[in-house]
Amino acid sequence: MEESQNLKFNAVVLDMDGVITKTATIHAKAWKQMFDGFLKEKQGENFRPLDITKDYHEFIDGKPRKDGIRSFLQSRKIELPEGDPDDEPQKNTVNGLAKRKNKIFLDTIKKDGVEVFEDTAEMLEIWKKEGKKLAVISSSRNCEYIIESAGLTTMFKIRVDGIVSEEESLKGKPAPDIFLNATEKLGAKKESTIVIEDAISGVQAGKKGQFALVVGVDRNEKSESLKKAGADIVVKKLTELKNIANGK
Fold first, then answer.
1. Among 53, 88, 129, 145, whose Cα sits 20 to 30 Å from the Cα of 135?
2. Cβ-proximal residues to 38 (8 Å cutoff; 6+ apart), any chain
3. Could you tell me if 15 and 113 are in contact, meaning their C-beta atoms sit under 8 angstroms apart?
4. Torsion angles phi and psi, residue 196, rounded to 5
5. Rg (Cα) of the chain, in Å, rounded?
6. What integer pLDDT is reported at residue 247 of this predicted model?
7. Is the separation of the CB atoms in 209 and 156 below 8 Å?
8. Catalytic residue among 15, 61, 161, 232
């Protein structure tokens, strides 16, 4: 932390789920519900359920939806056809499972709403007042809807999400494309931009992008994993970053 206190930066790129909004746990539960149902249907009573602590964080978290499906299925040595983009949720294809998971997630959001982490809300206000350029990134195609539901639309100058990534052929995490794209659109340089992530794949992406500082947010007791992935510092709350502001 000491080396970072004199860091000069003018832009911050934040991941959405787990950093800004309390939606990471909803995603994890939706993935588990979807995959456990699929695995039980395919393998019967002897199926091995998805382990959120291991499987979700290692194979799914932070990745584009279909990449996460392919990665987890590969870990279980299960082959599925890709199917078509218009496959229905009940169809056992990569596209079908993606829609099935998304339906579970959106149904939960519509029922329970979206919460914002208080520490993040505080830091966003501080950075906004200081004139920092702010961008939100996400592998999710639901990013715009979630940010709007959270009342944060005007907070971010730039949004680069799953839809933008597809339109502009950006590689998903752990590739750094999504962060570099957001930084470029902000009109900032990576040497003066902070990346904030809670996912292992996101930290790896930030490190590959060679940004000024990669901050890992430990919301789920995975501090060591974030450090191993390349986080320059790991914090429990974003308010720990108050001293990292142009030497203040």
1. 53
2. 92, 97, 100
3. no
4. -125, 125
5. 18
6. 41
7. no
8. 15
Beta carbons of 207 and 214 less than 8 angstroms apart: yes
pTM of the model: 0.79
Between CA 229 and CA 112 the distance in angstroms is 32
Residues in the chain: 248
Task: Examine the residue annotation and report whether 36 is marked as an active-site residue of this protein.
Answer: no
Q: How far apart, in Å, are the Cα atoms of 142 and each of 135, 163, 168, 213? A: 16, 8, 17, 27
Among the listed residues 248, 240, 235, 183, the one whose alpha carbon sits nearest the alpha carbon of residue 212: 183
Q: Which residue has the tokens 């890992």?
A: 216
Ranges under pLDDT 70 in the chain: 1-6, 245-248
- Residue 166 backbone class (left: φ over 0; alpha: ψ -120 to 50; beta: rest): alpha
15 a catalytic residue = yes
Q: Which helix (H) or strand (E) segment is 196 a member of?
A: strand 193-197
The predicted structure's pLDDT at residue 246:
46
Residue with tokens 């949004």, as numbered in its chain = 159
